[in-house]
Amino acid sequence: RKEFVDLYVNYVFNESIRKPFEDFMQGFLRGCPARKWKIFLPVELQLILQGHTKFDWHLLEQSVIYIGYRKLDRTIRNFWTVFHKLPEEKKKMFLAFLSGSDRIPGYVLEHFTFCIADPQVENPDEMYPFANTCRHILFLPK
């Protein structure tokens, strides 16, 4: 019975997926050559591929660039007051709205910046905030 169980487990976890896994590995290594990944420790590789999952939101606030605003403008102060009161999940949703991902790439946590810009429209009350995800710009009407 032990031999049967060992052979069955080997088939389910190894043999039955060998061909699909080899195809996947071949495609993966074509885009990400294994030689280059060997320089990383597993935890470093996970950080590069997965990104940061824990954030210092105050550090993010300090790295913002303002266009058409100053840091002490009422709109900006109100924005940060509301932002810091949000639960963690809503803050991550904001990050996804801003950048297209709810994570910051692993290599730029300290250097991740975004802009808050005034879209300079005639009637800001008729406009919703919107974002340029490629350039990490939040257009926030006054």
Task: Map the helices and strands.
Blueprint (H helix, E strand, L loop, with lengths): L1 H12 L4 H14 L2 H4 L4 H9 L6 H6 L2 E3 L6 H12 L2 H12 L15 E3 L12 E3 L4 E3 L3
Parallel strand pairs: 1-2, 2-4
Antiparallel strand pairs: 3-4
Characterization of this structure:
It is a single chain. The chain has 142 residues and is an alpha/beta fold. It has 2 domains: 1-50, no CATH class; 57-139, Hect, E3 ligase catalytic domain (Hect, E3 ligase catalytic fold, 2-Layer Sandwich), CATH 3.30.2410.10. Helices cover 49% and strands 8% of the residues. The chain contains 7 helices and 4 strands. It has helices at residues 2-13, 18-31, 34-37, 42-50, 57-62, 74-85, 88-99; strands at 65-67, 115-117, 130-132, 137-139. The protein has a 4-stranded mixed β-sheet with strand order 1-2-4-3, with helices on one face. The mean pLDDT is 87.
Outline:
Residues 1-142 form the HECT domain. With 142 residues, this protein is of the alpha/beta class.
Q: What order do the strands of the largest sheet run in, or round the barrel if closed?
A: 1-2-4-3
The geometry reads as elongated
CATH topology of the largest domain: Hect, E3 ligase catalytic fold
Regarding CATH, which class of the largest domain? Alpha Beta
- What's the number of helices? 7
What is the chains' assembly state?
Answer: single chain
The residue fraction in helices comes out at: 40-55%
